[in-house]
Amino acid sequence: MSDYDVIIIGGGPGGYLAAERLGHAGKKVLLAEKESLGGTCLNVGCIPTKSLLNSAKLYVHAKEASQFGVDATGVSYDWDRVQGWKADVVKTLVGGVGAAEKRAGVEVVKAHANLVKPGIVEVDGAQKTADHIIIATGSEPVMPPIPGAKDNPAVVDSTGLLAVEKVPERLAVIGGGVIGVEFASLFAAFGSQVEVIEMLPEIVPFMDDDLAAQLRKGIKGVDFHLGCKVTAIEGGTVIYEDPQGTVQRAEADAVLMAVGRRPLVNGWGAEQSGLDFTSRGIKVNDIMQTNLPNVWAVGDVTGRSLLAHAAYRMADIVAAHILNPAGASSSGEIFRDNTVPWAVYSMPEAAGVGLTEAKAKEQGYAVVTATVPLLLSGRFIAENGLKAPGAVKLIADADSRVILGIHMLGPYAPETIWGAATVLESEFTVEDLRQVVFPHPTVSEGIREAAWAVRD
Predict the structure, then answer these.
(1) Can you tell me the distance from the alpha carbon of 412 to that of 378, in angstroms, rounded to the nearest whole number?
(2) Residue 351 and residue 180: Cα distance in Å, rounded?
């Protein structure tokens, strides 16, 4: 008889949610996390970032309130108190995760764990057995071998920038993905002179190009340099080549390396156990099974989607299959990559789900699209004015009329996009979406307007 029904390596979103689900179902679960519960997302990722962004947005809204008839004088921010609020949020939520595991009867140990082989995990030097093992080791920042970057005190990753003692006067950001854009927007709002150097021709590569361009233009106080290759870093100076091959320099007090993250597949026994993986992640099928019997993987470490909510969904799928091996698949418990939404919490916000117009065409679809401005929304105008950027773009198969993607730019987009994800999950046609009743006045009505703007 095994020591546990399930052992989970890693206490990030995928790991702790799987533990909670299985614990509540009566399984004996051991959750091993060498650092803090909550993983990157809760401790040094999405949650602390959103806490700082909230303070930045309140500061900007107060300064710009006069257009709505509200004059706020003497508006300022206290960086120490902003950081204190971030710490309070993280502490509260980490404590909440721990309490949830306790209520579920999960045994949590703060220890390093190694996968020895199917059924055996070494936890803090002692071997433990389990009927099932779930790998949830997460990801780590990518630090490319740019000359001058290593051991340079001016160069930080996202974790380091979250903990700075003061707002840098000048910030250079290498990478225009979600992490880079959010930090650029955040520090620009607090007064930093920000430059973003991006190798690709547009920011946020999985966002539709039309809306990505609008997002870039809508972020105030940030200079974007697109199609540029960083060649070296000298102290706080980023040296790069522009699209014409001309050498340029960005002078900064801090340099954020934000070129992405990679699955953490080393240091916990993947090689020795016989697990099938590459540098791009552990290979899993649509129910998160690995090549090893009763060994599962969830979250960033799979490389399929490096998003916390994707990890949640993967955790639910694994728990369902462990609890109901025969019936889980027939009840829809599989992972569908194309229906995982993404979100950017910059100023302005953006979100999307499904294919971009370019990706749809690459995959051979004949597409029909519609883009509508959010100025069609009464609430959008009332709360954001007549010049704020905002739009919804819908992409559909021209033949079947099935909706392939929905992309949004503007406030509340991250809160609204779940509805668009449901549209894709349900394989709605344009005509199906036109029949949905949206509350009025809401910004979400932009999705309905986009459906009606698709040509018949």
Answers:
(1) 14
(2) 16
440 an active-site residue? yes
Which amino acid would we find at residue 334? Answer: I
Whether the model clears a pTM of 0.90, i.e. scores above it, the answer is yes
Q: Which of 112, 321, 407, 440 is catalytic?
A: 440
Rounded Cα distance, 359 and 395, in Å: 10
Q: Which of 394, 402, 405 is nearest to 370 (CA)?
A: 394
User: Phi and psi dihedrals of 403, rounded to 5?
Assistant: -75, 130
Contact 269, 115 (CB under 8 A): yes
**Nearest alpha-carbon partner for 23 in 135, 106, 109, 97:** 106
pLDDT digits (tens, 9 = 90+) for 132-162: 999 999 999 998 999 999 999 999 999 999 9
- Nearest partner of 410 among 439, 433, 442, 434, judged by Cα: 442
Q: Which amino acid is present at 243? A: P
Long-range contact set of residues 329-333: C-beta below 8 Å, sequence gap at least 24: 329/287, 333/287
List of residues 6+ apart from 217 with CB closer than 8 A: 389
3-state secondary structure of 91: helix
